[in-house]
Amino acid sequence: MELLGEKCAVFGVYGKGLEVARLSFFGLFALQHRGQESAGMAVADGESITLHKGMGLVSQVFTEDQIQQLKGHISVAHNRYSTAGGSHVKHAQPMLVAGKGSVERPEDAPSAGMYPYVSLRSAPEDDTIALVHNGNLPSTTALADFLRSKKIDSSEYSDSRMMAEAIGALMREGKDLEDAIVEVYPLMTGAFSVLIMSKDKLIAIRDVCGIRPLSVAQLNGGYVIASETCAYPTIGAEFLREINPGEMLVIDEKGMHTRTLGTPNPKLDIFEFVYFARPDSELLGTSVYEVRKNFGVQLARENKIEADVVIPVPETAIPSAVGFSRTSGIPMELALAKNRYIHRTFIQPEQHIREQGVKAKLTPIVSSIKGKRVIVIDDSIVRGTTSRQIVEMLFEAGATEVHFLVASPPVKFPDFYGIDTPKQETLIAATKSVEEIEKYLRATSLRYLSYEGMIAATGLPESSFSTSCFNGVYPIDIRERAKEVKNV
Ligand code: AMP
């Protein structure tokens, strides 16, 4: 069974008279940072669903022509994150499943070429549904057993495909969409912020912990649902509220109504604040930018270092460097320049090409580095590959000392909820002590933000978060995957 880490974005619109395809295009564009491997959207017009999805960035997948062909008043849209080995258009979303009639779907036959795509219109008599998913289900045994009981072989399916198939299977037995979702919800054991669309409804569901973000906004009498709030201002939508953990929100002709499908146990993944979310988003009513700045303030309080200059690794660590510089009084320079047009799609996941990748991405500005004692700040260290090269780059540019400061604690535990931090043995802090990592990086010193400092910087109670990658406490049972985790 193929299980894929899905660090993605979802976006949806419901609104008669709104140009939902164009709004979704801009929504996906604002959420491009959450996934660059593939993009897609499905639009419903009350009769059938039109789908277009393909490999590449949002701007590579959609032309003006395609946007104009996607007609209707409801949409669901998705950006998928690139993962090693899983790069194929069959994993692109939205996923379509027939709610009536035949189980066969035409979308298994993509176009060929550099950017393969799938483009189709569903038959009205199929009662097709479309599903998009952000998150990851560590265990899919319950879903696989259920599908087997319906004579569906799920061995080739991703977790997202399994959810869509399970809902479709119940609809083909005569259940309506809402009832089918209610029945499948307890089988979805993991992290999910999911949107499901039928020809006349848009439905959002979130796991009981709300591990991945999801919220709803208003726009000209219609509604918009997005992974991150940064998508709303770009389309003129007004933030209403977060979708609650355990909630099912249904939007249809009658307006918006809500049901609770599971007992909420709110635990947002703190890694959204650390690395993943855009700084202009708000999570749990709190600005991501301000929290990252506070990480820097805390780092400066915890570490007194004599140095001449503070340099952030762009982009995520810039707010933390601002906070650090203000608190420590050490001036900040943007002395690592980033090529803005480089995307992960262009960097192969293999380790040796990753190493070259850092040089294609970052260039040192020698005049701000030469002869200086440098503090360099990054948001996190995962494998350690990037940090090692940054240290080398700074010494080559003439730094006399390189103090590496990390605006989060050591990442020691693998992720199962959709941020795709790799297997535990590849996480450098799972196998090496801070002193050993410092040696490996060849840094003058290495300091991490303390766990308590990270929590304090959010201004929110520790209990509001999943912090599994730092402490190995997994709020949603990871079931059979627990054997992959060693206590370190
Ligand atoms: P490395 O230590 O070489 O694996 O790279 C760590 C850098 O990648 C960090 O500085 C982050 O900016 C970024 N990063 C952190 N988490 C992730 C993730 N889940 N996927 C991709 N990049 C990440």
Automatic annotation (TrEMBL):
E.C. code: 2.4.2.14
Residues engaged in binding Mg(2+): T316, D378, D379
GO BP: any one term: 'de novo' IMP biosynthetic process
Residues in Glutamine amidotransferase type-2 domain copies: 8-254
Keyword annotations: Glutamine amidotransferase, Glycosyltransferase, Magnesium, Metal-binding, Purine biosynthesis, Transferase
Gene3D superfamilies listed in its UniProt record: 3.40.50.2020, Glutamine Phosphoribosylpyrophosphate, subunit 1, domain 1 (3.60.20.10)
Cofactors (names): Mg(2+)
Pathway noted in the entry: Purine metabolism; IMP biosynthesis via de novo pathway; N(1)-(5-phospho-D-ribosyl)glycinamide from 5-phospho-alpha-D-ribose 1-diphosphate: step 1/2
Pfam family, one: GATase_7
Originating species: Candidatus Kaiserbacteria bacterium RIFCSPHIGHO2_02_FULL_54_11b
HAMAP family tied to this protein: PurF
Recorded catalytic activity of this chain's protein: 5-phospho-beta-D-ribosylamine + L-glutamate + diphosphate = 5-phospho-alpha-D-ribose 1-diphosphate + L-glutamine + H2O
Taxonomic placement: Bacteria, Candidatus Kaiseribacteriota
Cofactor comment: Binds 1 Mg(2+) ion per subunit.
Active-site residues (renumbered): C8 (nucleophile)
SUPFAM superfamilies: N-terminal nucleophile aminohydrolases (Ntn hydrolases) (SSF56235), PRTase-like (SSF53271)
Protein name per the record: Amidophosphoribosyltransferase
